[in-house]
User: Fold this.
Amino acid sequence: MLQYERFENILNKLQNQSSVRVAELAGEMGVSESTIRRDIADLAKAGRVRKVFGGAIPMETGTRSAGAQGAEAEDPRESSRRQISAPRPNIHEKETIRVDEKSEVAAYAASLIEDGELIYIDAGSTTGSMIDQITCTGAAYVTNGVRHAIRLAEKGLKTYLLSGRVKASTEAVIGYEAVGSLQKYHFSKCFIGTDGIDEESGFTTADIDESMVKTEAIRRSGQVHILADSSKFGRVAAVTFAELSAGTIITDQVPDEQYRSQAEIIEAGK
Assistant:
């Protein structure tokens, strides 16, 4: 069952009853309790439910998020299909979310780097987790992550930072100038982060200026690796930057096997 389908199930239940319990939802949907807890946390962040111990209750009138206010005429299930766009956490907040899964994905990705290669590392929390795990000192690294560049250089690695506008919340260099500075490079491999993976929408991100940089880096790379923990499957952010066939997804686990028909997927822990 995809994440948006689980969201729909939870929201439907809360239209008809005063509460839902994690254990009951997990049993009904055939997923783990930790998966349901993450779903409830995502819905709570989006202002669609109120998280309580052991489950969730409906949001009270007047406590819904700004994105949900004034939308009573809209079917809430439609919002769940669009992944209920919650405020995007900044890079520091993202680094505290699903840390173990990101580390597992990052360790596998770092192991793919070889001497003599020119590597592109995208800004983001999962790609940032790669840096501590890189052992290849014979490669050169290009990034649009400001802090990524500092950390790579501190490891003694040959490092290049793209030029362009800096977005504070993601510490990413973005926009047309960043795209232009990418165009002199030809990468052996790129490692790209994503906000969402969806069968119809492909790989998506929240910012159009970030999407342009991701798209250009993919276009200029021999091998493309998309780094994403399993929570990204079934999510759709604002802008598509590539189709699922554009590269290999490295994840901790695949929540739905149907994705394998459209993309090459590596489960890092297997």
Observations:
- The radius of gyration is 19 Å.
- The first helix runs from residue 3 to 16.
- Confidence is low (pLDDT under 50) at residues 61-86.
